[in-house]
Give the backbone structure.
Amino acid sequence: MSPRQMMIEASENEIDENAAEFSADSEAMVARHPMADRAENLRIVEAMLFAAAEPLSVEAFAQFLPQGTDVALLLADLAENYVHRGVNITQVSGKYALRTAPDMGALLRREKTEQKRLSKAALETLAIIAYHQPVTRAEIEDVRGVAISKGTLDNLLEIGWAKMRGRRKTPGRPVTYGTTEAFLSHFGLNELTDLPGLQELKAAGLLDGNLPPGFDVPMPKLGDALTAEEEPLDGTEEVARELPLEMHYEVDPAEAVTGAQEQPEN
């Protein structure tokens, strides 16, 4: 091999060694670059927050990050980046979670009317109040043949279908109950006399064909004026809500006025 060829080969070997060394050094620099590590750690924290079903503690994040990582600093930086976004990173009982930004709550809120059914006891009580008003609690229990729980009347007062009218002029001065305009409106009645009578209930199949002798459906009394047997409330009664709850009860009007014929329940 000529001296010239030997020099060329030595130069090529030196170039290859320098290139290999530069490549190894570059890879080491990339692997050790602090900003690259931090960006990856932020991505890990962000992914954990997004996938978590419940708030995460600092210790939970630390399990998936390199040892010695300042988790609190990462969370603080990430939270700052999310300040003006649709979701924020918030602390909940010392843990961290993604939550909808407070100013987005009104835009995302959807109100839905809750559909519920009155209990059988409430239907029977409502029917008795409608047909026998003004009626006291003791009189309701006498018609039903069973005591009624306090919650049954409270529910009817709460939804605005029944109200306290006055007090009976008898020993103990019991409160008398009656129906309201909301009751008439819900059941599509112009006045209480539009409630179905005996023959209408029979025709609809809502009454037994073999009724006891002398059985009759009472005629409701008209008007909100107190009768001669009542006196005004004295303000010591438990105050019912003036406005009914924003809910509608799935009740058939005929069921409401005939419920007391079925086996009563508390």
Q: What stands out?
A: The chain has two domains: 12-107, 114-261. DSSP finds eleven helices and eight strands in the chain. Residues 114-261 form a domain with the Arc Repressor Mutant, subunit A fold (CATH 1.10.10.10).
